Amino acid sequence: MVYIVIGIVLAVAVGAIIKQRSRRPQDQADGMESEQDAAAETDIQIINAEAGGMDIVDVLSLPADAPGTPLPAPPPAKAAAEAEFGPEEEIVPLKPILAAEPLSSPNTLNSATYTSLAQQSAAGDSPYAYGNTVDETSKPKPETTLLRWSGKSGAIQIGDLTVRGPVAYWSDGPSSTPEPSCIDIRLPVEYPGGENEFPSEGAASYGEMTPLQRGVYLRWLAEGRIQPPPHACYPLVWLFGLERRVLSDRLDMGICIGESFRLLPLLRWESLKQGMINFIVWLAAKMWLPEEELLAFSRSLPNVPRDILNMLLRPYSDARLPLPSVVAFTVMRASPLAEEHGIIQPQPFLHSDDLVSRFSVKYKSKCDGGLVLLKPKTSSFVAYAPTNPTLQGDKKATGGVLELPDFFKDTENFAPLIAVWKEFLKEAFPPEAEPLSALDELEARPDWDSFVRRVQGLSDDEEIFAEPVITNLGALADLMGIDRQEGVKKVEAADRKKISEAARVEGFLILPDMGIAGKEYRWNEPVSLTPFPPGERLSQDYSAAAFTLEYACALTGLPDPHTLGTMRDTLRDYFSLSPEDNARLEALSSVLAASHSELAETRMNPNNIGDSLQFWLQREQRALFGNFLARFLTIGDGQDWVQVLRESLDVDTIEIKKEEDLQPLELGSKAAQALSPLFTG
Hints:
Blueprint: H1 2-40, H2 49-52, H3 76-85, E1 101-102, E2 128-129, E3 148-150, E4 155-158, E5 161-164, E6 168-171, E7 183-184, H4 211-222, H5 233-248, H6 253-263, H7 270-287, H8 291-299, H9 306-319, H10 325-334, H11 337-340, H12 353-366, E8 379-382, E9 402-405, H13 415-428, H14 437-440, H15 448-456, E10 469-472, H16 473-480, H17 493-505, E11 508-511, E12 526-531, H18 540-556, H19 561-574, H20 579-593, H21 606-616, H22 619-633, H23 640-649, H24 664-675
């Protein structure tokens, strides 16, 4: 019986084992099916790069039922491990994120592109491009060409020309966003030279420019925008790009205002210059520019915008602190306070460190250390209307309206400062001396008008000064009845002064300046007569510009009319000249270009001019003016006249260098200040 029970147990056990072994293949198949079902529910699949023909960077989220994406078979080693230990859980990789890098980066600029791989937030004309290493043939191309930005550290390659730091937009085809300043690198470009004459006209957008105009614009950008633009269209188109960058993209405000500061002194067109000033003022208010930069901006302008002055005054009013001397000087020099209170002051009245020092002593003593202003009760509002035609009417690109305190609505707080300013002007700019009394005692005053008509060959009913009146000092002496000794060529200082002041009384100015002591003049030396209202004063900038032109001609010889005209036009970059000043410079050019046998002996001899400089100026002043003159002429040390200039000024060296931190107007102001002793006699 026992043996029977043992046999039954063994039979049951053997049957169970056989049954279990018969079920194991089916269980494994069912397990694989459940794994495939679970994988089908996931949102992300890993595509084999070789099987799918895609680069490894092109990993995208695909739906589970996406056609043409079969699950790759596991490798043999992995299948063996699963057979022994069970299925292994797959690790789902994170979705890659492309890193954004500004276009101004020189490492990514030339290869930066927009693709469909970019993040959704970068759709449209983003100010940034995305650098990547994806094969261009294996990824979808953008439907439109996008606008791109190249800043100070970027560069644009157009053919053989590399434009570094253009601070401008560019594209490689027509941009989907219309922008007149966009540099389309696919458009044809030509450069002046050879048979290509310099273009005299311009266009309001890069796309509308001719290939030759584009070449001029690109070369101006490539040279760093340090030369005066040859046409108003080029800085205008460039300004369009700054407006979009600041108002639409709302980026790089500091770079844009800094580059605007740098370009402003090079502009000759008043409407464009005023537009640039408005742009700078709005940006300064938006960024709340530091006082040092506001003062530096104010020094370069003959008339400072009221909003800039309000920004200068606000911190001192809020903190109830006395105004520093330089701030008080700037306010009175350039604000409407002087005009409102009938104060007559020089025009244009530029910043001068020497005048600030003289003003500071009187200001601090009269105002107990400085004027303290109360907070004004009224406000002024600053807004900017873009000149870029593609931004006009776009409410999002206006930049908004900024509020500033208005210190000039009620000027009663400035009363102590106004009183000090009146006293300061009387000491700094004494009234011009009265004409010699001997002139009033002349029995028969010279008929200057008839003399001018006779020189010009006009009848009594024709207007004089249709052309410059060129005569000589001997003819003017005969007109006034001044006795000249026979055989004496040199003009005595007393006779020269009498002729000059008699002409002033009658409303005439003699060119060149006849009041420079130490300089030799001769009777047969040509001069020019121009109209000059009695009592009017020549500005220091004009006197310095005229002297610079005369000395430059003496150093380089009698130039041809084209070179002389270029030199005259270049003076406008260094000195603040009025339209009347420019007319006088043209009349002076006619005298300098006049052919006369005595020119080589007197005025056109640089040693004659150098004697007067050595008479009036210290060695440091002569060296400063010599360096300025060398930069003005932009001629290297190898020229013959450099040695003549050293000997004429009696200085050891002439340094021809560019001072990067000084603008042309600042250099001109320093030169005019150094030459100021010449024009006091």
